[in-house]
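QA checklist item 7 of 12: single-chain prediction sanity check.
[x] sequence parsed
[x] length recorded as 89
[x] structure emitted
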Amino acid sequence: MAKKSQLARNSKRIKTVARFAVKRATLKEAGDWEGLQKLPKDASPIRVKNRCAVTGRGQGYMRHFGLSRIQFREMARRGEIPGVKKSSW
């Protein structure tokens, strides 16, 4: 499980990105780079970290499922992810 502070910081960044999304888009379209510089750093969507929905783990994240590789393996083995089954040949 990730630190609570890291999870809180990331959720705060997600909210900030959502709040400034329209303003960023208009400034980018107008080419106002000075205006973009005046926005908060966390308003940039690149600063949001993809994290596992179950554990909050940041490494080994599988974008298609929204889980870390470890949680994906455990949930797939238990049959909790639709359409995923253990392969054998």
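[x] summary fact logged: Residues 4-30 form the longest helix (27 residues).
[ ] second reviewer sign-off
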